[in-house]
Amino acid sequence: QQQVKQSPQSLIVQKGGISIINCAYENTAFDYFPWYQQFPGKGPALLIAIRPDVSEKKEGRFTISFNKSAKQFSLHIMDSQPGDSATYFCAASKGGSQGNLIFGKGTKLSVKP
Amino acid sequence: DGGITQSPKYLFRKEGQNVTLSCEQNLNHDAMYWYRQDPGQGLRLIYYSQIVNDFQKGDIAEGYSVSREKKESFPLTVTSAQKNPTAFYLCASRTGALPGELFFGEGSRLTVL
Q: Which of A50, A101, A112, B13 could form a Cys-Cys staple with A64, CB 3.0–4.6 A?
């Protein structure tokens, strides 16, 4: 019940395409869902986050879609660029943004020029 | 510039030796965390501390120890009891106020020879 399942493990997208990464959770007590971006040799950095009271949040080319009934959320990267090539982690926590985060296993995204 | 400094960036250790990884933050954050990252495994929580002189075990605390004598510092010791210590170790911190974003250091890569 504590797991966050992320897919796919790896993703190759052409420049300008849409990258979609999916996550699913079981614990209905989770109430904070962030996405982190990690470049090789660096620590992850917060990209965007959502709470379950909204179904979608957009920041620039990055959008989180949230489906509370299905217990799923996804990251969409529009107009993907080579600079977006990184590993993306979804996460979830209960207790809002102060709860300990449970991370998915990550998706390695490669955007080809 | 405010941030989290981890050292050393690379560390080699012989089997049976303890090693201590340093983590220092100047963000004035209350909470600090240690994660372990293995390929395809995501980020797993080792230990966390919400306040000075107090810390809690995470999901994979066996073979590790920490201390929190100062707000700015949260060193991690990988002991000889850790069965498979070769990994990328990430330190993070978070303010007690919203939105609760986790800030990560750049990591320490430990290799056991």
A: A50
